[in-house]
Amino acid sequence: MGSNSIRLLMAELEGEKLVGAEKLLSMTRLGAGVDQTGLLRQTSMDETVEAVQAFKALADGRGSRLLGAFATSAVREAGNGQDFARRVELETDVPVEIVSGDEEAVLGFQGVLAGMVHPGRVLVIDIGGGSAELILGDFEGIAHKVSLPLGAVRMTERWLMSDPPAEAELDALRADALTQLKTWRELVLGYKPESAVGIGGTATTLGAIALGMKDYDRERIQGFEISASALDHMILRLSGMTLEARREVPGLQPKRADIIIAGALVLETILKAFDMTGYEVSDYDNLEGLLVSRGYLKL
């Protein structure tokens, strides 16, 4: 249960191996307004409960065992987040765990390792709706991790007011992100990651745009590489469009069109701050990470 979307992983396992997977999402924008008011909106909460009910019905209909749900930035930060989690449990009979930023980072990293082709030291970048997690590590484990309030919904609401966004707004967002990243630069450069891996809606959507996908393809997106210069070109293109025009871009879901620029700018700033030449897209993320943490999926 994220700040932008509610996602479901339907996993087929043989032993401790993933042999089939399908992901579904419903964009309920649960984190809308949390940065300003500190509270979840009633409409977003209602839509999220409906989405969880629909996902549960789908899982039950397919004979799957639903492990439960976990909630991230929006729910853990909102003053009414605990009450909302209890409401979800009461109305859907789905247990909800509110994870910390550190726990979210661990789940994302474990998910990346589950789908990783090239082992080595990596910087994992997980840009969600409310927060961004940065994780350094390898197959031996996590070396360093941090969760920062740099999510795409939050940064859109904070900085991007015009349509299309003004250059000054883009610069202000970059400056905000860079300020939050500066204290981490020395640590990242000292760790010397061999590559960067992007997970979450921003990273995968940019991959889908680069590939011109009309229908999202998990197999094509996994491991796809986007250079920093290609990302710069995408940002230039998208930021010059109106919201209505962005909704027509192949690979970009219409409901994500209003926040993709902010997410891309945060990703761009992270890559430049840490001298990374690009990133590899991973569709394996914190949902697969949950399977690893519960012992269902082996790395």
Topology:
Blueprint: E1 6-14, E2 17-26, H1 34-37, H2 42-61, E3 69-71, H3 73-77, H4 81-92, E4 96-98, H5 101-115, E5 122-127, E6 132-138, E7 141-148, H6 152-159, H7 167-191, E8 195-199, H8 201-211, H9 218-221, E9 225-227, H10 228-239, H11 243-246, H12 260-273, E10 278-281, H13 286-293
Parallel strand pairs: 3-4, 5-8, 8-10
Antiparallel strand pairs: 1-2, 5-6, 6-7, 9-10
Helix pairs in contact: 2-4, 5-13, 6-7, 6-12, 7-12, 8-12, 10-12
The helix content, as a percent range, equals 40-55%
Q: From the alpha carbons, calculate the radius of gyration and give it in angstroms.
A: 18 Å
**SSE sequence, one letter per element:** EEHHEHHEHEEEHHEHHEHHHEH
- CATH top-level class of the largest domain: Alpha Beta
Question: In DSSP terms, counting alpha (H) and pi (I) runs of 4 or more, how many helices?
Answer: 13
The CATH superfamily of the largest domain is known as Exopolyphosphatase. Domain 2
Brief summary of the model shown:
The protein is α/β, with parallel strands linked by helices and about 300 residues long. Helix content is about 45%, strand content about 20%.
Based on the model shown, name its key terms.
alpha/beta; 2 domains; six-stranded mixed sheet; 13 helices; 299 residues
